[in-house]
Amino acid sequence: MTKHRTRTLAAACLLLATAGLAATGCSKSEGDDKAAAPSGSQDAAQQQVTESATAAADGCTLAAYGAPKLDLKNAVVGFSQSEKEDNPFRIAETKSIKDEAARLGVKKLLTTDAQSQLPKQISDIQDMLTQGAQLLIVAPLNSDGLDPALQAAAAKHVPVITIDRKINATSCKDYVTFLGSDFVKQGQRAADAMIASTGGKGQVAILLGSSGNNVTTDRTKGFLDEIAAKAPGLKVVAQQTGDFTRDKGQQVMEQLIQSKPGITAVYAENDEMGLGAVTALKSAGKNPGKDVKVVSVDGTRNAVQAIVNGQYNAVIESNPRFGPLAFATAQKFYGGEAIPQNVIISDRAYDESNAKDSVAGAF
After folding, report:
1. Fewer beta carbons below 10 Å: N end or C end of the chain?
2. What pairing do the DSSP bridges indicate for beta strands 76-81 and 135-138?
């Protein structure tokens, strides 16, 4: 590990120390795919930082951002959720933010739900600023389009921490930092799991996430590049959006069963679409997990249980429990420390070797 990498990893670990997260998790290598802690334990659920793309010394400080110092216990914090909370990822994400705010004794937490509508997310953020929000934690709906909300926050010198999706904006000007997964790597790991499940041969359909955000773009790129490099016998025969929803995933899969009857594998860019595909395959008389291999990204309890049931082959986790890391980052920022532009977390993987023992730790 280079001196630079060691320094960035150490800086990232400091963020977790503030929230009381297990410091031993920071020694875990980036290539570790399985959970080190027992699946039902507290450590198994917590996010752990693997890297920061910018050294903390070069990161964003309170002075550089131009925000006033703040004690979170006497602060009004706003959390903007992007999508309907009928998705386990969003439910777990919002709960984590609320739980950590309560644990820290934050004076007031404002929460909104944009219901997958960009204009609503913009107005939600503006409304929270009007209500006196002094810090914003935002789960962006899209990578572009939040400019009016970001400008409103900047005008009031309110810091913005983004989680789970990146925005195309200027760090330490429009926002402080991004907290989340390496989505390209998630796609690569999903491809590796698919290659293992299929033997590197067959016809794959990709159920794409919603358009306009880096999660979909990166998970697709990672998967396609890895397949091209390692398994030329695995042909991608269809790519169609399922908008990250179970109903749309099922609908798209039903159509693909008719138009592409030779499909032998499905890569879904989230578990909800993957579970929808399983329903469609079963309704068509196929045997998901066997006749048609299924791999997805998220780590929901239902998807991990589907592996146990033999109807799924692998799941790459995307940990939604951002509460401890988001508030730890805020505390460091208000304490005068430099915050990296990107704080990347580790994600586990589930397959038939560990799914049964890991269901309890899934969200």
Report:
1. N
2. parallel
